[in-house]
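The authors assume throughout that readers already know how a fold can be written as discrete tokens. For illustration, here is how one protein appears when written out as sequence plus structure tokens:
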Amino acid sequence: MTYNIQTYAVIGAGNMGSGIAQKIATEGMPVVLVDLTDEQVERGMGIIKTMLDQGVERRIFRPEQAEAILARITPTSNWNDLANVDLVIEAVFENLDVKKKVFSRLGEVCKPNAILGTNTSSFFVKDVAAACSNPERVVGLHYFFHPAKNRLVEVIGHELVDEKAMSAAWAAQEAIGKTPIHSADAPGFVVNRYFVPWLNEAVRLLDEGVADVATIDWAAKKAFEIGMGPFELMNVTGVPIAMHAANTLGQELHAFYAPAPGLVHQVNEVKQDWVLSGTPDESKFDAIASRLLGVTFYIAAKLVDEGVASVEDTDIGARVGLRWIKGPFQLLNETGIGKAQEMVRASMAPHGLEVPPFLAQADEGGIPIRLVSVGKRGALTSIWIDRPDAMNALNPAVGAQFDAAVEHGKANGAGIVIGGSGKAFVAGADIKFFVDNLRADAFQDIYSFTKDGQMTLRKLSGGDKAVVARVQGLSLGGGSELALACDWIVASPKASFGFPETGIGIYPGLGGTQRLPRRVGLPLAKYLIFTGQSLSAKKALNIGLCDDVTDFASLDQACEKWAEKGSVQQRAVPTIAPSQDWELIWDFFSRWTVEQILSGDADSLGEPQLEKAVKLMGFKSANALKMAERLLNDGEGLELNAALDLELEHLETAFSHPDALEGLSSLIEGRRPAFVVGVSAI
């Protein structure tokens, strides 16, 4: 069976279903919102409109954007409107009989190659799929509240699922801006398996008199570095929901997971939210932290032992879905293997449970956490950067793993496709790494990171087999430089490319000043680097910055097609504007220098396009602009590797200038930088 997802539908117009539909429409996709009656559907549309109105008030959306989102949603109570939909997502309330009836009906009204997804959080996907005439096309798609804002989705298979349906459903989640993780068809899937017991253990601590609510919340926030403690979170999400989720886990897994007596009492007798007031008793921190961490470590290790989730997906689930700064395994490694084992023993022994083998057998050096994974996508070796919560930003750890992955991929003898998890391809380098090292007067670490990165990128193109960049979303700075280092760049319609470095006081140092002009021509390279202007995938294709733009459903196939063309040994450097639309910019940046533009001597001819470019340059670091200009000009006639060396030679000069720390710091602090005016290092 072939699956090609272009259209979506959501069954159930309640809070969850309407939120899923809103997210799909926000990402530019048409979606049908279905419920049993027109009144229910209209209520769902009302929920969406209220959310969008709030977004307009908060300036997240412009009024016309909100109207366009609503226009992409087709509300209906006529299930025959599902006949031509490619992906249907069931989001009705958690009743297995009701869900089975829904899937039985979907099997009748949907086309044979429509994928059917269930948002169940309480039932096995296989049990829901059993009600459908074609269970192989049923997948679990477990979204997290609020689905219009929370990017996480757990993609769950089952014994009969068609792997092609799984792959298509996964790509469809990427297409709507979600961050998917894999889960086996198991109770609680990934995140709820440890999050619900974490809430439940907090109530146990209260039941046992270890501490009061205020102290437990305070200790949890400190230990896990999070904004809300377990009791406050239960108040926000609903105390009964926590109890029902714990009850389900307890029935399916072990009595340890069953609701604590205090949780049952709060729901059935008190029938109110938790009272959060009080002064934390800091002397209780260790006792609380050890229990909550011990429970979390136990379940995280069990997930891996049971094959429910990988180490990486377990952590991504926490960071993206729960917005924890660190995932369970990151916390475990920071705690130390020996101490973590002790915490698990102490926390779980009262329940007759032992340290899981995965943790018991772990090396004292810590549990390896992959930031870069190597796999297969069709005929190609895939190299994936997996830091979706950090928009796949590059740092030394990512760089080292990426280099090892490239070596491994090259040894495989197949073409390579490089991608990123989540909404971004790669959003540049990790800014905090630069700031921390500048403040510590540790430029050598910055230089080593940049040089190592350059050496890795030099391995990509021009080899025996092609390397293709699969740019599905945002690509900034180092991400765009990574893509440029590949033989071919294939983009989704949502991809964008930008070089924002001069706006934060530095220049592109991973080859951007040298590979970009060889791709698009020197004048357009200057325009992009000097202004920091991002380009849509369509515009990038127009100027030759990428080679192909195709929808998400065809992205992997397109990468294979371009890989078949083989590696690119050398490109012909453009010497004229790619089209009439770019002639003004081409001529302007061919003629005028940075000094002339900044001083006002350059004639923008009264053209809005050029005046905007000049205005954008006025917000950049003059030093960074002049250094970038020099690198662009000096590298033009050089062999590529010699030109790339220029970036490294001038790196210390750039980072020693006050504009570097000012620009990089301003990005972290969320303010406009105050660059030095008229002072240049060259």
User: Anything to note?
Assistant: The two ends are 62 Å apart (CA to CA). The chain has three domains: 8-183, 191-360, 372-669. The domain at 191-360 is CATH 1.10.1040.50 (N-(1-d-carboxylethyl)-l-norvaline Dehydrogenase; domain 2). The mean pLDDT is 97.
